[in-house]
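Quick start: what a row looks like.
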Amino acid sequence: LANNDSEDSHRTEIFDSLPYYDNDLEQNPILKEKVERELAREQKPPQTLHPRVPPPYELFKNNPLLAAELARVEAHQPLPPLDSIRYQLPAPTSTPATDEDWQQALKNAQAQLEHQRIRHTNLALLQTYGPNAWRTHNYLLEETAKQAEKALEELKQRTTDINRERKNSQTRIGNQLTSLEKKWTELISSILQIEMANVALDAEVDRLNKREAELASM
């Protein structure tokens, strides 16, 4: 059974349709209307992907912040304004201020100073190494785009070659079918002519037999 199943799976499928050659619907409008009515009565297939189509790739699955930002951009929502409160250096609000209030204000100022120092360091690193890193990134993107475009062109060329081969094959097979159909029609016509000739000969034989019987009875 396994061998039979294997043979069936590798068996070439044969379709009884030549879409590049068949023109019955164009030659017979009534048939076209009938086919369209039958198609309208058919139940629409479910809008599901083919089992071989991979599931959609979820971007930033492990990064909810980037996922939320991507959702915001796709929804065409404006960028939320920057929170400038964190960059302010508010003084103690209580009057008179206590030592604890001044300590909190001092810690906030130190944190802001450290934050600005880190930003300055990052900007210096970006100015030193950023241009080359960005050029390298752009080069990789360009190479990836070229490879994708090349693969797309090859796929389009393969599709064109397959369609051209299918059209040539179906046209050749269609011409053979037309020739065989014409030959079949000619043979049927010849058979009908022979049958009509046989009927005429049978009638002539019957007439001659009757004539012979009449002459013999005289």
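That is the whole record. The chain has a mean pLDDT of 86. The helical segments are 2-9, 24-27, 29-41, 64-74, 99-217.
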